[in-house]
Structure formats: structure tokens, C-alpha cells
Description:
The longest helix has 21 residues, at 381-401. Among the domains are: 2-203, 3-Layer(aba) Sandwich (Rossmann fold), CATH 3.40.50; 228-326, Transcription Regulator spoIIAA. It is globular, with a radius of gyration of 24 Å. Helix 14 (381-401) links the parallel strand 14 and strand 15. The chain is built from 20 helices and 17 strands. Helix content is 40%, strand content 14%. Helix 6 (159-173) packs antiparallel against helix 7, helix 13 packs parallel to helix 14 and helix 17 packs across helix 18 (484-494). The site of iron/sulfur cluster (SF4) has 10 residues, from helix 8.
Amino acid sequence: MRGCKDSMARNRFKDTRQILSREQGTIIKDWGGRLPVALMYPNSYYLGMSNLGIHAIYRLLNSYGDVVCERVFLEKGQNTPPVGLESGRPLTDFAVLAFSITYELDYFNVISILKTSGIPLYTAERDERYPLVIAGGACITANPMPLAPFFDCLCIGEAEAILPPMLPVLSEGIGSKRQELLKALLKIPGVYVPQYPTGTPVVRQWIGNLDDFPVTSTVLTHDTELGNLCLIEVERGCGWGCRFCLVSNAFRPARYRSADGLLTEAENGLHHRKRLGLVGPAVTDHPQIEELVKRLKQMGAELSVSSMRIKPLSPVVLDGLARGGARTIALAPEAGSERLRRLIAKRITEDDILKAVAMVVGQGIKQLKLYFMIGLPSENDDDIEEIVRLTLACKSILDKQARGGRITLSISPFVPKAGTPFQWLPMAPLPILEHRLSSLKSQLQPKGIQVKAESLAWTEVQAVLSRGDTRLSEVLASTETVSLPAWRRAIREIKLDIDFYAHQQWDTNYNLPWAWIDLGTSTEHVKRELNRALTTIGASS
Length: 541
Ligand code: SF4
């Protein structure tokens, strides 16, 4: 048995050496006298290395002379303890495990990492002999309650705003009694310590000037989804205020990097990759986007953007993308009918969508990806027919202008997200979603349109965790394997009701589990937006 463990450890070490040998920009530091922090991405290296947040925090933490930060990932099916990528050291050697959590279904991996690493699962069971376990990221900022009992502290807001005041407290207090350290951390704005709830709101922290913290691919590797790109963050937050959207509520206000700062980052990136990926919730909203694209083209960059609004859509930007080799453009009508687009406050009409498609196709781009949601509140079969009709109208524009064009639909069920005006609204029942998805597939696939969708059953799990409270932590802790039967068994044993969390409309007076988080938007505003939405469909909260 001992021999087997040694051999697994040797293999892991060999794997990490191989991964590092294919990277550019890895930061290797001596541990002597430094605070060792493990930056934990609770999913695979392949996914994590395309996550700009990981690059940003890795760079930020390693910019401190007295900190050494290493990355940790969890590969699918891995049941051995993960190790620091740079040194191959076990997690118990680190002073701090800092998780970045951006997806609810990764909660299962958080549990698995702690269990396999021999670190007690609950914060109450850990003392100064174990690493301090902290977390941040979009899910933590919106509603960390299903995970709260596992963490020593939770960061509400942006890492760049919270880590600088937190690091001196950690360096000073990491060797002292754990309860003393937790009490010291409690005083930092944006930090929530589950063992010491204060009863006062924790205010989300964010940085005012993005230029103070450049965010680009720090480590380049081809072993990741977007490995042929150097990624550059262009903006943060989004001012459009779509009512279902977490970005517009948890990352507000919309902030943009200066064109000069972005060009400097682009110049650096072009030494390593000829293709740049501009990243942000609505990249084409950048006030100097046309100038920026022109300059990047002059520098010889090929371009790709993570997301574009359908309106306004700039011909200059589209031209830049087309000349830069973009083969696919993704657009997000979100709903097929005007009625549902008004409900979600998407602020685009069918005419805008068709014009955008014509512009894209006019640039010679033949592949379109269209994002739609199903199961929006009040949706009926007619709304699904509207998705079919709109998609076919887009296809006919494509067919007229481009031979060999292709449309792919990406379908996501509506999931209520904490902190948004739709947080009180229900996810549609699974049988209805299944019926609507199969209706889309049966009508569109014979016409050559690919329809892709996430697993509906797993989306339901996501909805439960998204509106979950601390009772869900028991379910997470007792789910033996990451599978739907294991999840349902654990839910049954703990006697929780999936329907309540995922499929019921909540009264707006219900005391929300995340009510102690001050995202920066008043509850009155969020309720007003909900009521405006419901008025458009003749309902009330
Ligand atoms: S435009 Fe996109 S990112 Fe902005 S609020 Fe709407 S859905 Fe969210």
C-alpha cells in the first residue's frame, strides 16, 4: 500500500514537470521565509488556464516579495490529493489555500479536494495546524452559503481590492492561534468569517481603476481551451442591467481599461501569440473599441472577442475580427419573442438581431453561434416557436450571402441567481424544459442547425446551489461521488426539498440566505426591477 502511494506521488510529480515544461511565464519562487499560498481552481488545468481570474490572482500574489503562490487544479476522476503545480508539494505544506470559485457545480470538487488532502472539511474542525482555507470568485460574492461551513473566510468582491489589505494580516497571524487570526481577518472590508457572523452587512469590494491591475494571460500554454490566444481583460461589469444576469449585479459598475494600457499589454502579448483574445462581458461596449481595434490591427494582431452585444455592433470591430481570422461570431438574443426580451430587459428587437446577423455575414463570417435561454418566467410553447422562427430567419440571411454557413444554437435553462432581480423566480420544471428542448431539436436539427444544451438535470443542481443555504453544505459533504443518484440520495437523507430551492417562486419578503451581502444595489431597486419585469407579463410579485 505504501509503495502504491509513493508511486502515485512520483507519477504526479512527473505530470506536473511535464505540464510546466510546456508553459511560458511560470513563476517559480523559493519558499524560504515566504507565505506559501495555494491558488486553488476546483477543476481541470485545461479549463483553469483559460480563466483570466486565475492568471490575475497568480500574478498579483506573486508580485509580493514575501508571498509564494502556486497553482492547484483537480483533474476529472482524480482521487489522489492534488499538489502545488510549481513545487509538487502537498496542500498541507501551504499556509493558505485560496479557492477561486466561479461555477456552482465545482462545489463538489472543493469538497473532494479537502477530503483527499487530509484537511478537516469544516472550518470549526481546523486549527493552526492546518492551512487557512479561504475562497472568492463570482459564486462566493453572490451566495457562498452552501459552502460557508467549509471555509475559514470568504471574500466578497474583487481579489485586487481584498488581498492587498489581507496579506499583511495573514503574514503576521498565520502562526498564531487560529481564532485570533480569524478575528483579525474579520476586520478587513469584504471579508466574511462564517464562525463569527457579525450581523452587519458585508460590503462587496471592487477596484475603481482597472489600469492599476493589468489582467492578461500570465502563463501561456497550449494545453488549455484558449491556448492559441493571449487573453487581455478589457472591461469589468456591465451597465446593461439584464434582469437575470449576475455580471450586471455582482460586478457593477461597468469599468474600462484605458486604450493605452491595453495597447501596452497587447504589445507584450504579441511577443508570444499572434492572436489576442479581448475579454469582458460586452467587449464592444468599450468607449474606444474602434480605435483600439484599428491600432491592434496595425500592430499585426489577429483578434477574437469573448462577447459582443447585438446592439450596438460596430462594423469597424466586425471588420477587425473578420480580417483577424475570426471564423465564428457568437450573439446572444437570449429569447425568441419580443415579449420575453422585454421581460429580461435585453433591450434589443428582432430587427436589431437580423441586422446584426446580416452585418456579421456581410463580413464573410460564415459560422454563427446564437445563445438562447429556455424556461424563462411565463414562457410558453409559442415563445419556443419564436426561437425557431427567429433562428430560421437568421439562417435564411446566412444562406443568401454565404455558402457553407452554419448556425449553432446554445441553449441554457434559466437559473435564478442570487443578487439579481430574478433571484425570487423559479427555474422551470425539468419535464417542461425537456419538452421545449426536444421541440427545438426536432424542428431545427433537420434544417442543419445544431442545437447544443447543458444537461438539464445538472442545471437543476446548479439552481439548488445558486439559491442554497447552509443546509446544502450537509448535502455536499455527504455526496459520496459526483453523480446525480448520489446527489439525490444525499438530498433525501438530509430531507431537503429540491423543489423549494430550484422550482418555487419565493416571496420577496422571504429572508434570503445571502441577505447579509451588500452587493452595492439597494433591495428596493432589485425589487423594483422584478416588478417592472412582472408587469410586462401581467403578473405581480
Ligand atoms: S449585456 Fe450581457 S453581461 Fe451585460 S447585463 Fe446583459 S447579459 Fe449581462
